[in-house]
C-alpha cells in the first residue's frame, strides 16, 4: 500500500523511526516497503560506520555506491522505474531539492499514484532564489501530503505552496543507545553535572565553520575572561581545512578548548551527562537532533535562533536558551546566563525530559503511518 524512500541508510534515527513505522503499519494490517537509495554518502562514515542495529524493518538498498558517486541520470531512471512499477498506491519521497526527486514526482503523476514528501527545511535556514521558490511551490502543490519535523518546517512548507490540511507534523526523533535508561541517566547527571563557577560547555557534531564553531570559540574567550575555570568540549570529527584547533590556540584558549574527535553514541551519552549545556551555534540547522539527544540526559541546550527545533524543544530558561545566529557577543552573553539558569540540576533535568518525551521514535513512526492513512483515506473519498 505504501512505499517509503530515504536517501541513505546511515542515520540511526531514521532506522529507529522507520522501525516504529513498520511495526505500527504491521499491527494496523498495512503493507509498507522501505527503500534506501544508498548505504551512505557525503562523508557520513567520518562520524561512524553504518550501524544497522536500529533498522528493524525490511528494506532494499538501490545502489552499492556512496550517494554522491551515483550519476544523477542513473539514479533518476532507477527511481522512476521503481515508482512506475510499484503496485502500491502511495509513494513517500525523501525530498524535493534534487533532480532524482523530481523524477519520482513525474513518475507518480504519470502513473496516477498518490505522493507525499519529507520536508526538513525552515524559512530560517533557507534563503531561496525566486526561481527556486517557484519550483518548490510547484512541487509541494502537486503532493498529497508533506511530512515535517515541527512548526518551523510546517510554516515553510505552507509558504512554499503546501495545503495546510495536508501537512503532517511530529516525524522526527533521536535514536538513543540501546542501553539507555532514564532513571540511570538521571542518577549519572546528578552525580556529574559541573558547578556554576566551572561550567562545561559541549558541542556535538561535525566541527566546522558552517556549524558556527568559529563564533563559539570567539564567544568562549569572553566566557573564560569572566569564568576562568570554564571548559569547552567539541565532540566530533574536525574539518581540517577550517583550521579550528589552530584558531583556538591563536585565541589563547589552550587546554580549555578540547577537540575530542569522533565519538560513538555511548561516548556522547557520557558527554551529555557531564555538560552544563549543549551548544549548537549553527548558521543553518533544519532541526538539530543533538538537542533531542541532550535533553534525554537532562542536558539543556543553547542554540542559534535559526534552529528548527525552536519552539518545540527549546523552552526559554527551562530547557535552553536561544541567541542571534552569528552574533558572538550575544552567544557569550547567553552562555554566561546558562550557568545560572540551569544551576538547579534536578529541576532542569525534569524540564528537559518532560519536553523531549513527546519526541520519541514510536511517536514519529506512528505519525508517518497515520499521515499515510489520512492521505489514502482522502483519496478514497
Automatic annotation (TrEMBL):
Residues 188-338 form the Glycosyl transferase family domain. InterPro entries: Glyco_trans_1, Glycosyltransferase_grp1. Keywords: Plasmid, Transferase. One of its GO terms (molecular function) is glycosyltransferase activity. It comes from the Bacteria. PANTHER family: SULFOQUINOVOSYL TRANSFERASE SQD2 (PTHR45947:SF3). This is Glycosyl transferase. It comes from Cupriavidus metallidurans (strain ATCC 43123 / DSM 2839 / NBRC 102507 / CH34).
